[in-house]
Each structure stands twice: as structure tokens, then as C-alpha cells.
Amino acid sequence: MSIIRLLATSDVHGYVFPHDYATNAEKPLGLAKLASVIASRRDENTILIDNGDSLEGSPLSFFHQHIEPDRPDPVTLAFRRLHYDCVNIGNHDFNYGWDVLSRHLQQLGSVCITGNVEKDGVPIGQRYRLFHKAGKTVALFGCTTSVTALQESPEHIRGITFQDACAYAKETVEYLRTEIRPDYIVCVYHGGLERDPLTNLPTEKETGENEGSRILQETGADVLISGHQHRSLALRIGRAAVTQTADEGKELACIEIDTETGVITPSLLPADAPAEEEMLAEIQAAEDRCQAWLDQPLGETETDLTIPDEEDARLHKAQLITFLNRVMTDVSGAELAASALFSHTAGFPRFITMRSLISTYIYPNTVVVKKVTGRILKDYLEQDASYFTVQDGRITVSPDYLAPIPQPFNYDMADGIDYKIKASNPRGRKITSLTRAGKPVQDDDVFTLAISSYRAAGGGGFAMLKEAPTVREIPASMVEILARYILEHKVIAFAPVHNITVIE
Known about the structure:
globular, single chain, 15 helices, Purple Acid Phosphatase, chain A, domain 2, 31 strands, 5'-nucleotidase,  domain 2, 6-stranded mixed sheet, 29% helix, alpha/beta, 504 residues
């Protein structure tokens, strides 16, 4: 029996070392552990692929890009050791700009297959790549979610255009079938599934962010290696084998093609092997510098900014959010500000370090000020309020925010106003009171609102914010803004603000 094996990493997000940076406890994650898993499965009939979002996300990648960008990128060094046969690009790979991404691609020694993205009219990757394994021909092509054009900072994608991923996939598969006629066609897509894989029912709004289900339906590709959503998937949808891995290098996708029977078997392999010591040794010095930097003290807080219970922190608006919003209004001059509480956030202990800061604000967002009317503000808050519902007489998270993946990052909490959410009310009618300085907000009132660059670009489906006029942008990451604020003030102290009430 001859087996062609596809091994795919995806959404590693800069994690090489197998530990949690908040606690330094060892965990089954990271590229070094996956390297050992890959080595145990790799042979002459193996194709190794990365499906994007490799450069951004870990404290190590943040430290490199912001503190010592002129040194060799430790994430690139780790990826280069694996000798990928081809790589696809993810939306977050644009977070540090084209120069960083292009340097990464040039130094990898691997072929980029992202074909639906062009820089100055030239595709950044090959349209497809052919592999001749075990007497068969396998064609791989790559594409990334086209909403990157809407969600990324304009300066990071200047001169870059994104074709709709599904349209590109359909064109490419038709060409391959007509002109090349390979035995198997593999779509490597940095995007997820917008429909339930079992029922085919929609699981999210069709924004174009995730088009995996449509790609399968319209192309009939043999294999879909998906990503972006960080879901653990290994299954068949129709005749196609489909995979998706969790983030931070927790899993490796494995697709095995039996060339005698034609049976394609997808599976996920956990990062449960010993870390590859040679990979760790090559970037240990950078890791040591990063660890020392993470423990540098910035200041202290006399206000409780810890998050002992995430859902309670959203239900009752933790003071950590109040602090984030205070910093955003301070740096931007906006009247209002709104922030989300990200997953697995512990908040700030009394003595705040870069470690606690980066572990709390994990995305490279900047701050954008929008001009919003009272009507837009109400629409925005109504969409936020849909995060809550009532089940069995208890306030809980709406199922829409739990599947296909948890989306707590799409629930913002605002400051500068007072408002009440009645969770049991129908969607669109949950805000029962909205005031500023004791006066009801009117539809024609006008405010300046500071929000993250992700939200300002409509991320999470907030089209009303994307369409609102932009007043100003602060060209620094939120982590930089927070660090500067804490260093300047030394001691954080303010009276708790309880301006959001959520009732059944």
C-alpha cells in the first residue's frame, strides 16, 4: 500500500516554545513540539504545508517585532528549520506590514502558494504547485480570506489587493482540471467554514470572512485544509476530506491518501511529543531576552484589575475594561471608548509587568476614533447586547457567540455613557436605557468614539462602525499605548465605574 501524506500546521501565531507565557508552565503546544511529530511521520511521500498566521500572536513575536526587529526573526528561524514544501499566508501575517511579511517569505526557503493576493499587481504566491508522489500527481493551491482588506490597517496593505477566495478557488480548480488533470486537488485556505459540516446550515453571517463550505460546494476539491477559526476539525464533507487545527501549534493536520484505493483519511495529531531541542537551541537567546523583558516592571495599581471569572467580568463589566477605555480616551481625546475582554485574560496584578500586559491585550490593534450619531451608537450597542440571552431563568451567553467558535472578543463594553441591557428581550430591542451625563441619548446626537482598529474596520460584523467617519487614528499598538500610560502614571488608581447594567 502506498500512502501520500499531507501534514499541515496552521495558526501557530508565533508559538515555538512549549509554554504559557503568562505562567511559564509547560503546555502541549508550539512549533518545537510539532517538529518532533512531523519528523515521526515524514517520508519521501510526505508534503509539509503551513496555512498561515505564523508571524503574530505570541509574546516572542511581539518582542521581536517591537523591541529588536533588526535581529533575525526567531519565528522565521523556527519555520525555516522545518523545510516546508509550501506555505500559505493568513490575515494576521499582514499585521506588521508588507516589509516584515516579504522578508519572512524570502528567508523561509519555501514556496508561497497564496494566489488570491497581489502586491502591485503581481501575485505574492504561485498559482499552484504540483507534487509527484507514489506514482500520483497532487496539485496544491492556496488562498486567504479576502476580508483582510477590510480588517487590516491600510498602511500594512498598501498596494495589496485581495480577490474573493471562493471565486479564486473556483477558477483555479477549473484550470487544474482542464489543463493539468492531476490525480488529487488540495485547496489550502486560510479561512474557515461558514456552515455546519454535518447539517450544512449557516453558522454565521455570510461576510466573506469564512467561505470553506462554499469552496467545497463550488469546486469539488478533494481536500480542504482550512484555518483561521482555530477549530479542531478532521472529517469528510461529501467526498472531500477537511481539516482545521487549533491555534498556537496545539495540533498537526494529517491527511493520508491511499493511492491504491483512493480513500482519503483526515486526522489531527496532538503536540504531545518532546520538543525538538535543536530548534529551541537556535532561538534560545532570543527567548531569554524576551523573558527578561516580560518581567520588567512598569507600574502598580491600587484598583483591582484582575479577572477571576471571565463571564462575570463581562456580565458586570470588570474594572480592567474601565481602565482600557480610560487609556483609549486619554490617548485619543474621544468622548467615549469601548473595549472587549479577550479569552483567557487574567488581568493585571498589583505590580504590572510587560508579561501581564501582553497576556491581557493579546492583539496588535491600534486605536481609531470614529464620529458616531446617537443612532449608530444605539445600533452598535444593540449588536453588543445580543451577546446575552436568558435560558432557564438565567442570563447566559447567546449560542451565536459560542458556535462555531467562542467569540467573546465580539462583545464590547463602553464607557462615557450609562446603559441597561435586558437580556431576555429580542435581538435589536435589548437596550432599554441609554444616557450620557444623565440625559437620554438622541438619534441625532454626535459623539467621538475610540475603538480598536479591528472593530473600526467592521471586524466582528460591525458594519455600522466601518461606515462611520474616521476622525483620527493613533499609529501605535494598544500594548505600546498601555505601557506608555502605565510608565507615565506609575500608580493606577480610580474609583470603580459601574455604568452597564445587565438584567434578565
